[in-house]
Amino acid sequence: MTLELILAELGAGRDPGRPGFVGHAYSEIHEAWLSRNPYAEEEQRRLFPDMGEYQKSLDRGVYHEGLGLMRAELSLLR
After folding, report:
1. For labelling, which of 23, 28, 39, 43 has a CA lying 20 to 30 Å from the CA of 60?
2. How far is C-alpha 68 from the geometric centre of its chain's CA atoms?
3. Which of 35, 37, 36, 9 is nearest to 24 (CA)?
4. Contacts with 29 (C-beta within 8 Å, 6 or more apart), sequence order
5. Reduced to 3 DSSP states, what percent helix, strand and coil does the chain have, rounded to the nearest 5?
6. How many CB atoms lie within 10 A of CB 41?
């Protein structure tokens, strides 16, 4: 999911690190995770904006790890 989001932004000529998109990406990643984990704990079942900071940090970490990997890969291609 993370790389799909990043590649879609790059394909549209937009920066996947721009603030307006990053917040959207966090929510999308969380929703995808929820669809794969129907027995998640109550705190994890909340919408992204309503979750606690620790739970949010997990989704943020997934996105930024993917973004870092994609940027490293692109720099190798140049």
Report:
1. 39
2. 12
3. 9
4. 1, 2, 5, 59, 62, 63
5. 75, 0, 25
6. 9
Q: How far is CA 32 from CA 36, 45, 58, 78, in A?
A: 7, 11, 13, 32
Query: Which tokens is 6 given?
Result: 């990043």
- CA separation for the pair 57, 26 (Å, rounded): 10
Question: Per residue in 69-78, pLDDT tens?
Answer: 988 887 777 6
* Threshold 0.90, pTM exceeds: no
Torsion of CA 9, 18, 65, 39, to 10 degrees: -80
pLDDT reported for residue 74: 79
Q: Where are the domains of the chain?
A: 2-77
Q: What is the pLDDT of residues 40-51, one digit of tens each?
A: 999 899 999 999
